[in-house]
TrEMBL record:
<dbReference type="InterPro" id="IPR000086">
    <property type="entry name" value="NUDIX_hydrolase_dom"/>
</dbReference>
<dbReference type="GO" id="GO:0019693">
    <property type="term" value="P:ribose phosphate metabolic process"/>
</dbReference>
<dbReference type="GO" id="GO:0005829">
    <property type="term" value="C:cytosol"/>
</dbReference>
<dbReference type="GO" id="GO:0016787">
    <property type="term" value="F:hydrolase activity"/>
</dbReference>
<feature type="domain" description="Nudix hydrolase">
    <location>
        <begin position="42"/>
        <end position="174"/>
    </location>
</feature>
<keyword id="KW-0378">Hydrolase</keyword>
<protein>
    <submittedName>
        <fullName>NUDIX hydrolase</fullName>
    </submittedName>
</protein>
<dbReference type="Pfam" id="PF00293">
    <property type="entry name" value="NUDIX"/>
</dbReference>
<dbReference type="InterPro" id="IPR015797">
    <property type="entry name" value="NUDIX_hydrolase-like_dom_sf"/>
</dbReference>
<dbReference type="GO" id="GO:0006753">
    <property type="term" value="P:nucleoside phosphate metabolic process"/>
</dbReference>
Length: 222
């Protein structure tokens, strides 16, 4: 009966503005005509890189994640928090900064929505091959200074996922997608293909307020 219902928004209010996210509450028209509140975490979106060398190893980083109180094994990744930055350019930058690598070939593996129950975050995951080592820039971020790097074979990475030793959802998707493409069981997409899932609401609001190019720099931030 309500299959084609349009969940229209009656009103919105912003509850929190922090450097890397916003929180708003929407009043939404539900099937049957009632109204309900839905909180939405707004995000800049992100990119991640499954960088695979000629030996079939994927470059991984181990990073502390305070929300879960653990160091997780992840793919090199980062926010789309620079105004106007292209996702491919962001991925290339993150691969240099976090892994000290550059790549000759780039392909889109997949786009994932990390937590659509409450957050609009989407991440574009690239496959990078034809790798070479490059100098990593000095990091001013204390958290990044704690990162460690390691190479893991794709076969071992898949086994670690099934043992819940790799639990970052972006890494899970990227490792399995890279395995499928490199085994010839699937195809990637051009590195510059459209990214319709990329969240824009937070970025557009920050840019309209003149918070650019670094959209994390709120007026109260140094």
């Amino acid at each position: 009966m309500f299959k084609n219902h349009e969940f229209s928004v009656v009103s919105s209010e912003y509850l929190v503005e922090s450097p890397i996210l916003g929180l708003r509450r929407d009043t939404v028209v539900m099937p049957g005509g009632t109204q309900a509140s839905r909180e939405v975490v707004e995000h800049f979106g992100a990119v991640a890189v499954a960088a695979v060398d000629e030996e079939g190893r994927v470059a991984m980083v181990r990073q502390y994640r305070h929300s879960v109180g653990q160091r997780l094994l992840e793919l090199p990744a980062g926010l789309l928090d620079i105004a106007g930055e292209d996702p491919l350019e962001a991925a290339q930058r993150e691969l240099v900064e976090e892994a000290g690598l550059a790549a000759a070939s780039w392909t889109v593996l997949t786009d994932v929505m990390n937590s659509p129950g409450y957050c609009d975050e989407a991440c574009r995951i690239f496959l990078a091959t034809g790798l070479r080592s490059v100098e990593r820039p000095e990091s001013e971020d204390d958290e990044e200074a704690d990162m460690s790097n390691q190479w893991v074979s794709l076969a071992e990475a898949r086994a670690q996922i099934l043992r819940s030793e790799i639990m970052n959802s972006i890494a899970v998707a990227g490792i399995f997608a890279a395995s499928e493409v490199l085994a010839g069981r699937g195809s990637g997409r051009p590195a510059d293909c459209p990214f319709p899932a990329r969240p824009m609401r937070l970025a557009q609001r920050r840019e309209a307020a003149g918070i650019a190019p670094d959209m994390k720099r709120l007026p109260s931030q140094p």
